[in-house]
Amino acid sequence: MYLELDGRGPLYDQLTRALKASILDGRIAAGTQLPPTRELADELDLSRTTVLAAYEQLRAEGFIAGRVGSGSYVSDLQARPCNHHAETSIPAPSRYAQRAREVRNWDIPRIHRGLRYNLQYGNPLVNPALNNAWGRELARAANYTRLVVNEVAGLNALRKQTCDYLARRRGVQAEPDDLLIVCGTQQAITLISRVLLEEGDRVVLEEPHYFGAHQALVAHGVELVAIRTDEQGILCSELPEQSPRLIYVTPSHQFPTGSILSLQRRKELLRYAEQHQCWIVEDDYDGEFSYESQPMPALRSLDHGDRVIYVGTFSKVMFGGLRLAYMVLPAALRVDFRNAKYLGDMSCPVIEQSALAHFMEDGGFERHLRLSRKELKSRREALIAGLKEHARDRVEIADTPAGMHLVVWLPGYDQTRCDALIAYAHDQGLGLYPMAPLYLHAPPRPGLMLGYCSLSVTEIREAMQLFGQCLDHFQAR
Ligand SMILES: Cc1ncc(COP(=O)(O)O)c(C=O)c1O
Questions:
Q1: 3 lies in a domain?
Q2: How confident is the model at residue 238 (pLDDT cuts 50, 70, 90)?
Q3: CA–CA separation, 89 vs 64, rounded Å?
Q4: How many domains would you assign to the chain?
Q5: For ligand 1, which residues put their CB under 6 angstroms from it?
Q6: Where in the sequence is the domain holding 287, given as residue range(s)?
Q7: Which residues, other chains included, contact 253 with Cβ-Cβ below 8 Å and sequence gap of 6+?
Q8: Which atom of ligand 1 is nearest to the CA of 313?
Q9: Which portions of this protein are annotated as coiled-coil regions (predicted)?
Q10: Last residue of a domain, one of 339, 362, 385
Q11: CA of 275 to the centre of ligand 1 (A)
Q12: Fewer CB near the terminus (10 Å): N or C of the chain?
């Protein structure tokens, strides 16, 4: 397909314009099937993400129809009532919107439905007792809560309960005034970008890392520096000499490898932040789920320079759809973060906050936490036992007795074979997910991330048996 890119602006924009021009002047006729994204990307020497983004834009504007995967066809523009010139000359969206469009097209682990056993990370632990208790709390909160727009920082009762919880469980000493209740870690990262980062600022993150943070930071337009991790967490000796503005880490349970940042590295990291005058974001997403010992206190509890922005979420301890999380903010940042939160959405929904505060105060939250921890521990044990029995030495388990997922490496596999294994397992009804999309650079070895939260012990045993059969199939080839 002959297409000339005009060299103006982002590549996906150039490609969108070139395709539109060809469609409008009839060189690509209505009803023509556009080449598959991979093929066009190879032909034009572009990334597939760029082509996906261009197709998505053309689809949004009605130039093409059909879905990625099942073919994209040029629409019959004559049949459309509006004028194309007006459409092509609408002002371009902001650079943020363009970058956001690109990151939303990344090949990150997506939820697959209809699989017999889905080891998708992020699926919730189903607990009918929680559903009942939560229903009662919501009904109660709807009756007893003042239904007005709440304080920007969040409901005082919830901030107070969260402070007690943080002191008890995570060793973090904070006052309600230090807290900002936000709609998920995702919003915390967006607010952090807005308040602390300019486009082009340098930000350090772990390699591999949490895709949600990665996406939000790229959409903001920062320059990312990915620092390798090992079994003691981020390799502080590899932190850049040129000062970053911010370092984003998951010290309690490195996402996704599971390592716990050692005490020595914690001190090194804090010293580095002090010397380089940068902020640290501590994402403590599942620090509560430690199965064999007391979890290590949060990095924030060692921070005497007030440089650590601690982010905790209720997505893991409760459920992701709740969309409530909290930030413990250094004193110097409180006002700016409250302002950004106010301008974004004024405050989080009040009934959910009120229900959660009462659930915590009443002891229901702690009971639920104890039960979840017990249940997750036995699921994790079943997964490891199943791997040892059925996968044997064909996988290497990255074993940390914590969290809701596990990483296994596949010795002797390259990425192509790993992808083929995933596709084959998928056809057998087993959802496996690759580690590769969680790296900024090429991953050093192929691996899988196995989320065990939403399968029962029996299902996990069956899933591991099937996993063993999938590995057999690949061994036999
Ligand atoms: C590393 C990490 N941080 C945070 C979260 C939770 O994000 P949120 O609070 O936006 O649901 C997750 C969950 O998937 C995670 O894996």
A1: no
A2: very high
A3: 18
A4: 3
A5: 122, 184-186, 210, 212, 250, 255, 283, 285, 313, 315, 320, 325
A6: 128-362
A7: 259, 260, 285, 286, 287, 289, 290, 400, 402, 403
A8: 9
A9: none
A10: 362
A11: 29
A12: C
